[in-house]
Design goal:
By secondary structure, the chain is an alpha+beta fold. The protein has 12 helices and 18 strands. The chain starts with 16 loop residues before the first strand and ends in an 8-residue tail after the last helix. The structure holds adenosine-5'-triphosphate and magnesium ion (MG).
Amino acid sequence: MNPSTDFVPEFDGAPLVWCDQVNHHFGSGENRKQVLYDVRLRVWPGELVIMTGPSGSGKTTLLTLIGGLRSAQDGRMTVLSRQMTGLSRNELVAVRRGIGFIFQAHNLFESLTALQNVCLPLDLLEIPKEEKVRRASEILDRLGMGHRLQYKPEALSGGQRQRVAIARALVAKPKLILADEPTAALDKERSRDVVDLLQELAHKDGCSILLVTHDNRILDVASRIVNMVDGRVATDIDVQNSMATCEFLSRVDVLSKLPPATLAELSQKMMEERFPAGSWIIRQGNEGDKLYLMKSGSAEVVKEELGKMQTLRQLTPGDVFGEISLITNRPRTASVRAVNDIHCLSLTKEDFDKAMDTSQSFKDRLLQVFFSRRFQGGIDIPLR
Ligand SMILES: Nc1ncnc2c1ncn2[C@@H]1O[C@H](COP(=O)(O)OP(=O)(O)OP(=O)(O)O)[C@@H](O)[C@H]1O
Ligand SMILES: [Mg+2]
């Protein structure tokens, strides 16, 4: 075990799930097999994080560790402000109480009706019985089960049982919801009901949701998409930000014909950079090492000729600049100076070149750029 003592992610709005360098093994001796490697993951309040990845990549294992359904072995993990490494059985049970689980095994009480099953989590709350029944009926109705309130699980189909289990997991509006393939047994319409409800809980009630799925029909509700491969977090994409970045990049002439997959890859490789007012982002004559996308602030393009400085144009949010010398391998032809504090995303020449190699259409496009008039103008600033 490696619980860290200096690790206290407790601040206002801290992530409800905080994993760092989490490793996990199954078996012992010769059969000991590592299934999670250095997993780093945050789930912030109000986020709906979709986790996907090939079968056997460790998604369920990670979910069960976060949910306290098995003991964390190695690394740092905090869930609902509690360190998860080294917890006793009772302490794990206490963590589980704060979590809504939607797992494949429904574990409904066979002797209770659908309505009674869903009322169970509300028993922990001090509210009148009528209120419990009202809330349980409402959520069952929302999931298309309003006509089956008095049915026992044995009289329900697999998909109906799953919806009762989902209603039970969500009825008390837990702060954290862990869902493993919640829509697997449901048709398109019912899947939509479930994810809409989850999204509403995230947006309206600030619940955090970590949802494992292979179902690409529901990706649109994600705030982030985390892709697991071979026990590692391969990508962790902030959907809104990445889409906005791809959108900006696709508006740049030279990048506009790149396939979405390459644009998405580029957007993932971009680094946040900040420049204070008055500082130089690009210097004329220097080697081109990066291109930039301006997120906020403004800058000016300045060219020095015959000892005179001339301002060529202003750059504002959404502008991409600095790409030409990456294409030509020639020094910067102008400078860029921050007018006020600037927030940029930058992409290195190495990553830019890799993207160039991946796309024939991109190469064609570049060839056109090489011969375009705008390019002959020689300003190392936006092509658009
Ligand atoms: N209890 C266990 N004992 C030993 N190995 C296990 C155990 N549970 C899972 N594994 C192994 O750990 C690896 C990850 O399994 P896990 O169930 O986390 O994958 P998953 O990403 O959820 O896959 P799927 O998409 O098929 O549900 C697999 O190689 C699996 O065989
Ligand atoms: Mg699984």
